[in-house]
Amino acid sequence: MTFSDAFNYVLFDNPVSQSVKQIAKSTVGMMKPSKEVTPTTIKVITERVPLYKQVAEHGPFLRIAGLMGASAVVLGAYGAHRKYPKDRVDELKPIFETANRFHFFHTLALLGVPFSRNPRISAALFICGTSLFTGACYYRAFTGKDTYGKLAPIGGTMLIIAWLSLVV
């Protein structure tokens, strides 16, 4: 094989070059106005796709909501049957109930996140906000210590922004 044969093969005769040449010809052919009009047939595909498969295309939000719901039920049962200190029951029980209510509400909100315009941002805000807010409240209700109390307002603000992210 001489140099000119190799050069010819690389530029014109190899399968990649031939494919590029065919694509270029068909593209140029599409750009030229054709005189004859060919009727086009539109085929409508009406395939039933289950809702869980459509939701799964947008991320793992359904599974995360399931885990958050299960943890809300477990923590709710634990908090309902827990014995609080007698001198602080009026203080700690409402904090627990607020945390559990917010945990459930925002778990349900997470189910609607795949239908939003920016589902990953909304989900991240809901998950982080719920974890920070309810985590700080649960910790205080179960231990009586206010160590993580400053995280609750941050989590609450994130939840407000998460709700607004569903609108935008």
Explain the overall architecture.
It is elongated and about 95 Å long. The protein is built from seven helices and no strands. It has helices spanning 3-13, 15-31, 51-56, 61-81, 89-112, 119-143, 151-167. The model has no long low-confidence stretch (mean pLDDT 86). It has 168 residues and is mostly helical. Helix 1 packs across helix 2, helix 5 runs antiparallel to helix 6 (119-143) and helix 6 (119-143) packs antiparallel against helix 7. It is 72% helix and 0% strand.
Keywords:
168 residues, single chain, mainly alpha
Question: Topology, pairings included?
Answer:
Blueprint lengths: L2 H11 L1 H17 L19 H6 L4 H21 L7 H24 L6 H25 L7 H17 L1
Mean pLDDT value? 86
Radius of gyration: 30 Å
State the distance separating the first and last CA atoms: 65 Å
Gross morphology is elongated
Low-pLDDT residue spans: none
Number of helices: 7
In short:
By secondary structure, the protein is an all-alpha fold. Helices cover 72% and strands 0% of the residues.
